[in-house]
Specification:
This protein is mainly beta and about 110 residues long. The protein has a single domain (about 15-100), classed as Sandwich (Immunoglobulin-like), CATH 2.60.40. About 15% of the residues lie in helices and about 35% in strands. A hairpin with a 6-residue loop joins strand 5 (about 50) and strand 6 (about 55). The N and C termini lie far apart (about 45 Å).
């Protein structure tokens, strides 16, 4: 049990450390969301439902976004087996900047010492 708790503590910061874009909550019938940035649109991403309120949210993980300026827009999507696919119009744009990656430089001049 102690090993499980330790593992959970070690893994948890990595799981919640990513920045996310999150929409406002919606009570309408929606099943998915899409995100577009620089003309590229994601596939359908299932909405996240808050168990306490029943509100549905779009939640997009931005961890793998390239450095630089971006403008994100989202859409709610309802995929119905009978009526097909319905999409909202684009959300208001969200401009944001991901800072330059801070990758350490390569160690230089390695040597052996006695």
């Amino acid at each position: 049990m102690k090993k499980f708790i330790l593992l959970a503590l070690l893994v948890t910061p990595a799981v919640i450390a990513s920045p996310f874009i999150i929409s406002d909550g919606s009570r309408q019938v929606v099943t998915h969301c899409t995100l577009s940035m620089e003309g590229v649109t994601t596939g359908d991403i299932p909405v996240v439902t808050d168990a306490a309120t029943g509100l549905k949210y779009c939640k997009f993980d931005m961890a793998n976004t390239l450095s630089g300026s971006h403008i994100a827009k989202a859409r709610f999507v309802n995929v119905d087996p009978l009526w097909g696919r319905d999409e909202s119009i684009d959300s208001a744009p969200l401009p944001f900047v991901k800072p330059a990656d801070t990758i350490p430089v390569v160690p230089d001049k390695l040597k052996l010492i006695p």
